[in-house]
Amino acid sequence: MKNIELHVPGFPRIGARRELKTALERHWRGELPATELEATGRALRARHWAAQRAAGLSFVTAGDFAYYDHVANHVLMFGCEPARFHFDGEPELARYFTLARGRSEGERCGCAGHDAAALEMTKWFDTNYHYLVPEFTADTAFTLASERLFDEVAEAKALGHAVKATLIGPLTFLWLGKCTDGTDRLALLDRLLPVYGQVLARLKAQGVAWVQIDEPILGLDLPQAWRSAFENAYWQLNQAGAPLLLATYFSPLEENLSLACRLPVAGLHVDGVRAAHELVNVADWLPVHKVLSVGIVDGRNIWRTDLDAALARLAPVVDKRGGNLWLATSCSLLHVPYSLAPETALDAELKSWLAFAHEKLDELALLRTALTAPDDAQQALAQARAAVAARRTSPRVRDAAVRTRLAGLTAEAERREAPFAERRTLQQARLRLPPFPTTTIGSFPQTPAIRTARAAFKRGELAAAAYEAAMHAEIEHAIRQQEALGLDVLVHGEAERNDMVEYFGEQLAGFAFTVNGWVQSYGSRCVKPPIIWGDVARPAPMTVAWARHAQSLTELPVKGMLTGPVTILQWSFVRDDQPRADTATQIALAIRDEVADLQEAGIAIVQIDEPALREGLPLRQGQRAAYLDWAVRAFRITAGAARADTQIHTHMCYAEFNDILPQIAALDADVITIETSRSAMALLDGFGNYRYPNDIGPGVYDIHAPRVPGRDEMLALLRRARAVIPARQLWVNPDCGLKTRGWEETRQALKNMVDAARTLRVEH
Ligand code: GLN
Ligand code: ZN
């Protein structure tokens, strides 16, 4: 007799129609009172629990909901809001949004000293979800300070559900935070554990069936002190008497496997997709009286599960566990869209290959039926099998020309015509740029007029010729502004682009787009990642006409502007039927052809943006070298089409590159522009120490705020940069693209920036 229970580690919260986003933004504009925002939250939770129950899950999950971010929920729950916010009796939700969004000077009481920047935001492991970073100091105190989790549990119980509560474990919570005074955050554990004990005791008293406690850091290369802290911490937590399901996900446990299996908890959840090879081992090591939850359905991607393969993977585990097993998605479904139902624009075949959150719940139910009452599952299994087989054998997925080209690739494709020193001489002769050349990162303000025109064109309400004329006018405007400002290398401004990945994906073969496939990125912000389902090819040039038009308007060089292969890959849902490296190489070849065509059209400088290169790094150190190898190769193949006198730029947003400087140098871009202003150029030190050989444009001003920096401020940053990087290698530019800024502030800031560069030239 088999006993299979079903659950999910978490469910998306933004709402199938992004109801939470709408409500939040209305609340922030002062149009929706907190009580109504809370009503929206309650309705969403009720709907999400009902879906879990309807799919036959054994428990609904409470505690995965958040108005902004689940890590920030814990900051409230543990009463560790940083003192710098000077909270003074504000309601909980108001404090929460202040932590998340910051507060500007005088907003509250008119006196100085109450302004506060939001908590820093950073990526949740290797996902595109961003969490708010808890801030600690040596004397951070923790208290049980919020009733929200218990209220949500009570809400679910009142609706008649069996409830599994979920929270982040103490070690992961501390790991995700930072000590602003440089002390060791692990030292706070002893102070934090009693509060966890209180939370668990309360949950037990409420009668929850289980408490899922997430410790995904068990999948990281942890310092020994952190590993050692687990046993004692969980021994203490176990005293509360609530049945604990320790959840890990996103990567294999490896050296932490036996530790995870031995911790004094009632159950263990493991990622059965990314750590499939460890399943049998876990089944062996985990004592039989404990629950094993296998995350067998991928929570990170949108492909229909190969159920036969899943059942084959589960078979030895079911045997070893005497038929007792929990099945789940590998991780929270936060990282996938809600449902395929509204995707009316996807063709039926492609749609049959996919599974979003709701469909994944059904897959879990079907897997259980297949294990417990195989006869009842046959028909549904056959259907699923047919869809998976169709995808595997579909001629649509393969493009013979792409495959031939890929197979024929040699190291030659990665090589520029000449080494950097020679290229620089040729490029200098062609471009005749002054020392400290000035440029921007690509986009200029996306004004309401631009958005309106693009939306009307997409809806078919604006004719192609009229749209083109409107964009040409925008390009001309951007070019004239840049000329008047005295910039040295111009850009066309990217007015025609909605998004730097979507723009290319829409024109490449092998990509599909959803109408409603939203995934939360942070707070109320959602993204709609493209789906790469087949071989990638470029049927026609994608940017050449715009670039040629821009260049025809001016004597100054205009940069061609492309998104790099790694970034396109990283910000999409990627096919899982071939290695990511192969998909990256296919994209690289497509973008390479664009580089060649831009060059043919007379464009002397091509920028290949790779802001996501660093964020693609695998969680485990051991896998990083392989990733960096193919990522660097993909970039080099893309740039390899450029002649020696064509200057290749690349751009990356953050500049914490110290650990991968050899690979950044191996890209061999003639110029790299990076974000450095917020660190006052400190991030540049690594490049200096490494003696980075090619040209660098360290950002001299932060484009994330409307503030206009003065000339002297930027001059000071440039002098700092010059102390670290030889003057001949330095470019002058903002941190990133200007699409979110207004024209007025942009003009003033760039004017000051050009002034700063000119002053530096005189000094020089
Ligand atoms: N070229 C892009 C822009 O200027 C780069 C954006 C990015 O780095 N995220 O908007
Ligand atoms: Zn950027």
From TrEMBL:
Which pathway, per its entry? Amino-acid biosynthesis; L-methionine biosynthesis via de novo pathway; L-methionine from L-homocysteine (MetE route): step 1/1
Q: How is the cofactor bound?
A: Binds 2 Zn(2+) ions per subunit. Binds 1 zinc ion per subunit.
EC main group: transferase
- What positions does the entry give for Zn(2+) 1 binding? 651, 653, 675, 736
Which residue spans adopt a coiled-coil conformation according to this UniProt entry? none
Q: Does the keyword Methyltransferase apply?
A: yes
Query: What catalytic reaction does the record list?
Result: 5-methyltetrahydropteroyltri-L-glutamate + L-homocysteine = tetrahydropteroyltri-L-glutamate + L-methionine
State which Enzyme Commission number(s) the record gives: 2.1.1.14
User: What's the protein here called?
Assistant: 5-methyltetrahydropteroyltriglutamate--homocysteine methyltransferase
Species of provenance:
Pseudoduganella flava
Q: Gene of origin?
A: metE
